[in-house]
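Because discrete structure vocabularies remain unfamiliar, we first show an illustrative case, written as a sequence plus integers encoding its fold.
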Amino acid sequence: MSSDLVSQTTNEPSLVRPFVLIGLAALFLWGLIGCQSSDPSTVTPGKTVVQEIFDFTTHHTKDNVLQWTLKAESAIFLESDRIQVTKPNVMIYENGKPTVAIHADAGEIYEDVYDLLFTGNVKAVHADVTIYTQEMHWLNESGEIYAPGRVKMVRGDSVMYGNRLSADPRLKKAHLYSPDFRIYSKDEKTYVPIQ
């Protein structure tokens, strides 16, 4: 008699099985949605995110001499040897000494060459010179700051505008293309470059 009961229960369709399958499918979909970046607009389309880190800090040295340090709110590591960062604060060094501080809304680190890209409300400061632009690059190999777009350079009350900038990290040698400026002699007399 007991064997008849067993055969009857195994041959009847189970109502539990569809609920288990639906539950597993829902769990799978929830996992797919949950694995996406919290802000997909910051990730370059077509690039795979490897890892995301909050309160990110890094630095680069060459021959044991510090080249730059970077602190950011977050960093997204991509498979393409790039790191996208939010709110980067960077200090560029020359001969191991701090020269220019750069702040921006976003940026990227190119790990293969250690170049840096800054975008959105970029501000670079050295001594009494401040540069404002929307895009700026640190070219590590040449030790050069480059801004391909509109640039505003301020020293005291003096203001210079241009359509492109290339400069050394101390802003001692700056090439401003298509300049438009208003310079006051009082600002020029007080400027003393760092040796």
